[in-house]
Protein: Magnesium transporter MgtE
Amino acid sequence: MQFQLTDELIEQVERLVENQNDKELQKLLKEFHYADIAEVLDELNLEDAVYVIKLLDSETTSDVLMELDEDNREKVLKNLSAKEIAEEIEELDTDDAADIISELPEERQQEVISKIEDEEHKAEITELLAYDEDTAGGLMAKELVKVYETWTVAGCLRRIRGQAKEVTRVHSIYVVDKQDKLIGRLSLKDLIVAKNEKKIADIYISNVDYVEVNEDVEDVAKVMAKYDLEAIPVVDENQTLLGRITIDDIVDVLKEEADKDYQLAAGITQDVEADDSILELTRARLPWLVLGLVGGVGAFLIMEGFQESFKEKAILFFFTPLIAAMAGNVGVQSSAIIVQGLANDDLRGSINSRLIKEMLLAALNGVILAIFLFLFVWFYKGELDKALAISISLIVVIIVAGLIGTFVPLFLNKRGVDPAIATGPFITTSNDILGILLYFWIAELIINIYN
Amino acid sequence: MQFQLTDELIEQVERLVENQNDKELQKLLKEFHYADIAEVLDELNLEDAVYVIKLLDSETTSDVLMELDEDNREKVLKNLSAKEIAEEIEELDTDDAADIISELPEERQQEVISKIEDEEHKAEITELLAYDEDTAGGLMAKELVKVYETWTVAGCLRRIRGQAKEVTRVHSIYVVDKQDKLIGRLSLKDLIVAKNEKKIADIYISNVDYVEVNEDVEDVAKVMAKYDLEAIPVVDENQTLLGRITIDDIVDVLKEEADKDYQLAAGITQDVEADDSILELTRARLPWLVLGLVGGVGAFLIMEGFQESFKEKAILFFFTPLIAAMAGNVGVQSSAIIVQGLANDDLRGSINSRLIKEMLLAALNGVILAIFLFLFVWFYKGELDKALAISISLIVVIIVAGLIGTFVPLFLNKRGVDPAIATGPFITTSNDILGILLYFWIAELIINIYN
Structure:
């Protein structure tokens, strides 16, 4: 049953487009879900994709458009007139409609909006466009099923049959008072089970979760995940019901957040995919690499500064990659745990207690690793002073790296900066330099004391 | 409205427990959602937590237990008798019940199961326990609303009122034939809108998504996210309807997967949280650090091997941290993009075309970075031969690092190994060593040619 995107299928579609065999093409695509058609179109060249899109019925087209890769959608929309886009928009839910319009160039947005015929739809989309895309308002849809507390169950069912036509899936029925303030909820099941003559006021559940329209989408995602909600109503500061957010949009938010954090940790600054162009990929990667280069030059300058005192101790220089790698790895481990703890809200207690814990943890790891290193240097080179100097500095470097890895994301978070930026190259590079500096200082100190 | 976990609240609960003020405590906790109570309990010591749990009514207790942190749940369950656990299990949906039982030690599992009084519940839980936890079977619940195609709408509504009591949320109504084979679906809305005397066979939608019971949970998540599903039925190889999976469980799967991949990329091998014990955290971190140590020793041996030929060229050694850092960063960037592409199924085309693209990308980045480095060394030291040697080797090192970062996750994936393991320390360490080796080889070659 499951759809498989194969090269054969794509070739088949390409052949049908080439032969302009519209009938066969329509027959073939009718079998597929719109999300699958979008996957096929993402693989076609622009001309073929536009050909196929113009062939689909209007409802399918709009759904397919929503599912296309953002870059491809932009290109396809450029090939459609404002009138054609407005027609697709009419078929979409308000949240999807607003998303598509917001991706258009400024001047085209107005043109498309003016061509939307349904005045209510137009007004709702315009309202949604005013919200920041990272807030509850930017994610919500205006489509929902709303009942007044004064209605009866029978009246309710009758009206819901009307309202529900617009709403693809009825999650909860929201109960409002005369001023449209959200006061509770009902499930369709509750309504079916209740007697026809009952008043909504008698049967609704007043305990209803909601979010404010300006709340951050990540917080909305946390609330919905924590309470296992499938939809959540959105209200303004007066508790007036404005819209609702459904879990499928939250699933997308969670995936995007996870992808973004993963890329940041790997030193990729913009949202890119493996199939983006080389230029886009370079732009996303180069900034952190330049930072790495600057860090490397810093390490060079430090080592050059120490070269006189180590004329006779070249061996110390041969361990710098080891020191830098350990400092980087420990820093990334510490910061990743903190970044994740912050994202999941499971960090409690003061910064100081975190730092103490991290110090103990790093010290434990550091001592274990230093023992290995000490034994290696001692047996391999037979120089006790250097073995001691190298392994003791390794412990200090690891402890400092762990502290920096812990402190930086906590500090950024306090300052309102996304701590995810702190993992990856940023921590690695700063720990590399600091680690090497500490290493040479301490090693010099120990060797001087020893001799 | 939103719950805030404050130190004051925790202290208040602790005080009430200490004074054994059960009435106040019950009154306070009654206000909270079970997920919030679980958050409070996660902060209490075990004794207090068990005290509070025994005070809650049985339905709340079972929900709270499900939401507790896994480590805390294990401890709390140790303090409950098999009979007490069985009573909580009776209140839970089959999927949650099976999850809790599967966490118990082997010998306790049988004891708890034998104490479950509801025979049907017991049989269903036993069935679920047989499935692998990473498959659709391990995630599904037996609770669902099922109707036969031969029923009428009126009969259906009557029976659904019965079945739906067990089902917290009715997503879809699944339509089966006489042999219990899944043949379609219906929404509650469709049912309400239809005439009472219609047959289900006349109104059901035969186009229904489903997954097989042995399918991997990650694939289930992909299907549900792609088609925006809120629930999906699970069938066996004969298409017999076995259970259903709801989106809230998928949200948890997505979060766990994202957390795991993030930790792997940061060099943390087990699922740990910032609040785990130092020993657990050490166990999760040490393996990759030891790998880093071995890599560092490898780098040491390489540099030692080259020391004779570079007696007079200490400057080359001072750039090894830079070379190692660049090799590591480029490798992590490449592998992260590939790992993500594999996870999201957006990688198409052959391995060769990927490698060629990555080579071009790395070459572009490498040339830009090498120009910076060349200018620095040339102006700062005035030694053209070394400036050339260092910057040309940097380009080669970056290209090779990019290729390894691309190839390794693709190779692991082909072999059926989770490619996420390839980002982070694994790539960093292998690229460090190889990068340094290449660097010295090429630098030596160039300096020899030049002079």
Observations:
- Chain B touches chain A through 110 residues (CB under 8 Å).
